Amino acid sequence: MHEILVISGKGGAGKTTVTGAFAHLSENAILCDLDVDAPDFHLISQPEKYQDHEFWSGYEASIRQDDCVQCGECLTRCRFDAIKLDNGRYVVDPLKCEGCKVCVALCPAEAIDFELKKCGEWYRSETRFGNLVHAQLYPGEENSGRLVALLKDEARKTAKEHGHEILLADGAPGIGCPVISSLSGTDLAVFVTEPTPSGLHDLERVAALCDHFRVKGCVVINKYDLNTDMTDKIESFCTQHGYPVVGRVPHSDAVTAAMVERKTVTEFDSVMYTAFAGIWNNVLLQL
To answer: What is the topology classification, in CATH, of domain 2-56+120-286?
Structure first.
């Protein structure tokens, strides 16, 4: 089985539009939304969940009031201001607690518990394009990289069960922890960029990240016709560094119209279908 990851150096470049088109065009792929902080692939794939799982990761302190001796040692020691006085009682603010365990270790009364916390949920679903593995991390929670790794493992299991030949993943924006985690086991990263100075800059950094982890990459230039001079600069960069440009996507109002209808652009517009069909074939050739 081959693993294809669609990423970009920033949000809003068109990753999900590209992934949705690929999902529509692929014949036997397991789908995976790895943007666990702000997932949006479900908006166009309209999944029907058949499995719902809790995601537990990291720890959080909590003070047992019956055992607390009101010494204030936890308040003094906490570097994250997660301990506060509330009506004369010392309590933990869960939004500020970083799970460092200092308060637990230094409490003279041993009155602070350190419990595993529920950080989010992950799901197996059916879509009109096939099986989808996706998740939602709760606001402000960490361990997104660990959740991404879990999703990829579960997607591989589902692929093995159903005989899928390709794992197609919609990655997170940027170059942070969830993107690094999503690169593990990836055969090909598809970089989606736009013809702007910031688009080129973000392409450079996400390409450097893939080079560091020795993941092969290719490039899709979205809305290439809005600035052809910048498109030429991006293609020149790609030529110099050996990143194949597998396709150019024209600017089209059909993208927004398709989103409103909760469809992929290839389901909505025949011109975009033809454009993405060629791009998808070029991606498969890179494998």
So the answer is: Rossmann fold (3.40.50)
